[in-house]
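Below is how a single chain appears once it has passed through the pipeline. First comes the sequence as given, then the structure the pipeline wrote out for it. We keep one example in the README because the format questions we get most often are answered faster by looking than by reading.
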Amino acid sequence: MRHMVTSLDATSGLEVTMKSHAWNEGRMAAVAGALALVCGHAALADEAPKSWFQQITVNAFASTSYTWNFNNPQSNQNQLRAFDFDHNSIRIDAAELVVQKAVANRGDFGFRIDLAMGAVAQVAAARGLFRDPTTGIAGWFDLQQAFASYVAPLGRGLRIDVGKFVTPVGAEYVDGYDGYNDNFSRSLLFTWAIPFTHTGLKLSYAFSDKFAAMVMLVNGWDNVVDNNAAKSFGVALTITPVGPLAIYLNYIGGPERDHDDHDFRHLVDVGVVYKPTARWSFTVNADYGMDANAVTPPPVVPTAMNPDPMATGGLDAGAVAGAAATNAQWVGVAAYVRSQVTRRFALVLRGEAFWDLDGYRTGTAQRILEATLTPEFHVTDALVVRADVRIDNSDHAVFQRSDGLVRHYQPTLGLNALYVF
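Resulting structure:
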């Protein structure tokens, strides 16, 4: 669930919606353009058309934070977190510069470039660009998005994007100038269930005000340079049957492992957003992922007590001889409630559960629960300060303590300030 920065902020409260899809950006731009034409027709009639250079906009986003982990981990690292992984450190989460020529109408050409710095770059950088494909190490700078756009004059307008773009999957995403998540810390689903970005081709079309679709052909999950010869494809549907209700359906499939062109990774993502009034918003997001033949059984190692495991009945002959890889699976569900208490103050509650059934995503086969309460205060329309009171709980002891030992839970307090301009 993300917070969209719109003109509603200055008049009637805060517009809250699910993560924006590329087709929605085009539709919002088209609506804004239509309103501008209606309201300012007389003035615009006397103005000369803007050149392509004058249509380029520059925006920025900055976020800084401090997180305290009550486990006081020996490594000073918070476990299982996306961007807020530093304990007891004031840090730059993100500094983003966006240069773009937006597209809205049939026949429009445009582009968008997002330059990102900070922890967001270190975590979300794609392989082959600012993440070394061999070592997997990324720096503190990333080309988060870089794509060209064209609205083909077909029907209501077919939007075509080519390049690198953020994923359409999930209720949360990488923050930016045009929107930020309701909670400061990222969900388990954002961190472990879904990709961050894709590089390839994306086609978006709004069949009506109530139904839109997107298809994409991409290198895969978080790859600028593909790690195999196969491609991944995705389909997204957005359904808004009635005003306060929106339904998002996403699927991504394709081989994702190095030098493996056959074993598919499948991801199904479902989101439902219900906003009955301007003050209340409810969101549910669920993910199911499966990576074929991704889990390889550990080798059978003879020991002094059991020099021949097969002979002593430790394993049957079929199990040892076959040692077949099995499918990795992960499942998660998250729920969000946002209450806009006053024009400038809101409370957001998030609860979720994530099952890493084979330990393929987090490194441990575990069930993780998480609850976060986020009070949010708008100092101005552009400056936001907020806190995250959060606790993670696992059915395995995976969270580090000050003495280096581990426990089943991890309570943290985060403080965050962000500015959009």
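The longest helix spans residues 22-39.

See the next section for the split statistics.
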